[in-house]
Design a protein that fits this description.
This protein is of the alpha/beta class and 282 residues long. It contains ten helices and nine strands.
Amino acid sequence: MIIDKKSSKVLVVDDNPVNIDFLVELLKEYDVRTVLDGISALEAIEEERPDAILLDISMPKMNGFELCEKLKSSNKTKDIPVIFLTANHDTKSIVHAFEVGGVDYISKPYNTQEVLVRLQTHLKLKKALELLAHGLYYDDLTGVPNRKKFFKDSQKWIKRAQMDMPFHLHVLTVAHFNDFNKEYGYEVGDYIIKAIAMIVQKVVKIDYTLSRFGGAEFFLVFHHISEEESDKWVEAIKNASQKVKLRQYPELKFTIKAGSTTSLKSDETIKEMIKRAHKAQK
């Protein structure tokens, strides 16, 4: 796996200007930002999330252990790899660094190649984990959220709806999709599926969530708009689908069917809404 160093953001947290100057020069191929203490580090991380943090232990106001522990307790920052760079050589410090969530520990004086290799290793590992997480929640064919993410996100939508913040759910499917697969093959079916995601992306000009549920079935969700406005966007999607021309089969036409429903305070899960939307499909 290749990491783009110029776009990799590295935050150096150390109260010693000499150490900072050394690391800035060493990491000149990276996008490096430096701060002198833990409090400033939290502010910098809030402004711009780094890809990795090089962290000293002995600092005023908040030491490195405390900062790392705080970062690992937050969902927003828990996945940022923290590499301790410190003059402390004792076993207690090393063990504690890993206990609070550090991924690596390098003692001063630094071996420059060791710092570079270890940083590169953890950036690659972070990227690999991000790709793995993306594959868990996003559809490979279209890039939109998959069924698993849809159900995960729906839990918060239902809770908001129960507090009088309704949302609109639309089930979008391709009419006679299995016939397309049989007559033209699954490759053409895949083109149609990808076309649906592209149509929604091009047509809808407000915030929405589109998820692929399976096959040629998608769930489209709108928040903060009226039911009428929501229906208009779906009608625009249906109209646009009839004008689509697949490069390989320009004569092939497909139609999107839609079923819609609006959340009720009584809905306990998204499954109740899905049933209503399926019944309304036409």
